[in-house]
Amino acid sequence: MKNIAILLSGRGSNFKAIYNSIETKIINNARISVVISNKGDALGLKFAQEKGLNAFFINPKEFCSAQEYDKKIVKILNDYKIDLVCLAGFMRIITPYFVKSFKNSIMNIHPSLLPSFPGLNAQKQALEYGVRFSGCTVHFVDEKVDHGPIISQAVVPVLPNDTVETLSERILKEEHKIYPEAVKLFVEDKLKIVGRKVIVKKS
Ligand code: GAR
After folding, report:
1. Residue of 110, 139, 147, 176 with catalytic role
2. pTM above 0.90, yes or no
3. Residue 31: which domain range?
4. Residues with CB under 6 A from ligand 1
5. Are residues 97 and 124 in the same domain?
6. What digits encode the pLDDT tens for the residues 158-168?
C-alpha cells in the first residue's frame, strides 16, 4: 500500500480526480494519507475534511523562512510514511531541502506543455504568445521550477475565440485524466527516471 500526500492551495479539482481514481479502484494499493494546504480557505482542504481525510492548514505566516516551512511539511510527510507527494495546484515554490527529502517522489501538474510557459498564469502566457496548441504536463519535481523529468503530457488546441477561462477549462479536463494516470503508474512501480527521461516500464 502506497501512502500519498496531496499539497494544494485552492479548488482542489486535481486532488478530487486522484481521490476518485482511488475510490473507484482505478488506482489500487494506494491511499491519500494526508492533505496539506498553505491556504486556510482552500476548497480542496474543505473537501478533504468532508471525506474524513487527515487534512492540515499549515500557515506560512507562522514560519520565519521557506525552509522552516518546508521542514514542518517534511516532518508531517515522514510521520505519515509518505511514498508519493502530489502537488495539486500548490502555489508555493518548494525548497531544495524538501526536494532532497523526497527525491524522485514528488509530482506536479502544470497547465502548459513544458518547457513552454512555466510559472504563473501558464494559460494566459500561451494565449498571449499565440500558440496553436497547448496542454498540460505531469512531471517529477526537481530543484528548478516546472522543470523536472516529464511523466506525461496532453495536448489541446487553442481556438481563435479562446479566453483564459475557456482554454483553462479545456486544459483542466485533460489534467484530470493525466494526473491520476501518472499516479497509477507510480503506485504500480512502473516509472523509472533515467537522466531527464522517464521510462514507463511494461508490466
Ligand atoms: C491547475 O490548473 C494546475 O495545473 C495549476 O493550478 C490549477 C489548480 O487547480 N497549477 C499550476 O499552475 C502550478 N504551476 P485545482 O486546484 O482545481 O487542481
Report:
1. 110
2. yes
3. 1-102
4. 8, 10-14, 44, 88-89, 109-111, 122, 146, 172, 175
5. no
6. 999 999 999 99
